[in-house]
Amino acid sequence: MLDDALLTIPRGGSGGGQSEDEVLENLCDSLLNQLPKEYSIEDVVRLKPVMRENSLNTVITQDVLR
User: Fold this and answer.
1) Nearest 5 degrees, angle CA 9-CA 25-CA 66?
2) What is the rounded distance in angstroms from the CA atom of residue 19 to the CA atom of residue 29?
3) In sequence order, what are the residues at sequence separation of 6 or more whose Cβ sits closer than 8 angstroms to the Cβ of residue 42?
4) 66 and 46 in one domain?
5) Residues 50, 28 share a domain
6) Host domain of residue 43
7) 30 to each of 5, 9, 14, 17, how far by Cα in Å?
8) Domain shared by 23 and 43, yes or no
9) Domain check: are 30 and 49 in the same one?
10) pTM
């Protein structure tokens, strides 16, 4: 993914456009804004309660704790 991001940086040419660092920073900011928000453990337990019948919920809860 980072290789693709680096390919989006304009090469050469003249003019007063953004620097390579600015283009890459803007792209990274855009990607970060598209990520889902972090969930608190309370949110996860409410949405995916830990039950014997569904062990995947236990795994999800453990991953959030990490």
Assistant:
1) 125
2) 15
3) none
4) yes
5) no
6) 38-66
7) 11, 15, 25, 18
8) no
9) no
10) 0.44
